[in-house]
Design the sequence.
């Protein structure tokens, strides 16, 4: 019994191609059988599109200041079968980074099933989950005959402002 091999030059596989394969075999009695088939070969050398990454909630003073009290984000444009990679500590990994209080930078790309890599996309935002209360020092002149008015302003996370006013005589 003799086994054959099919050799195709690498340059023939550099583009989408359809091959016709012909196999001829014969036995010791001289009987010959010929089989034909076609094989379609598709080469994917196209990088996937860049991803879009955005905050789920931009809770700052404007809708696009990238200040949030919720560090979650959404990535769109993921190609079917692609793997997401995040740039963390100087290397690409497949585990999404955990967001922390303060400035965060999330850089992500996708690698499709053929191994093609997209350009990276980056989202920079500030995560602020701590409500701040601004204090003000008030000094009084006790010798004054005028009433003293003290205004206290406090902001909560919703942006509401509370004004307390106290008059002292």
Sequence:
């Amino acid at each position: 019994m003799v086994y054959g091999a099919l050799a195709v030059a690498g340059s023939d596989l550099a583009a989408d191609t359809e091959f016709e394969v012909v196999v001829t075999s014969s036995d010791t009695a001289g009987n010959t059988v010929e089989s034909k088939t076609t094989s379609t070969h598709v080469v994917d050398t196209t990088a996937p599109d860049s991803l879009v990454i955005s905050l789920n909630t931009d809770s700052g003073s404007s809708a696009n200041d990238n200040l949030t009290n919720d560090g979650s984000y959404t990535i769109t444009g993921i190609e079917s079968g692609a793997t997401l990679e995040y740039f963390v500590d100087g290397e690409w990994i497949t585990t999404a980074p955990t967001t922390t209080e303060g400035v965060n930078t999330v850089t992500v790309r996708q690698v499709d099933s053929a191994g093609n890599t997209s350009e990276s996309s980056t989202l920079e935002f500030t995560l602020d989950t701590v409500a701040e209360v601004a204090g003000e020092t008030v000094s009084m002149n006790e010798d004054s005959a005028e009433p003293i008015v003290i205004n206290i302003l406090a902001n909560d996370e919703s942006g509401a402002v509370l004004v307390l006013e106290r008059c002292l005589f």
In short: The CA atoms of residues 34 and 166 lie 103 Å apart. The mean pLDDT is 81.
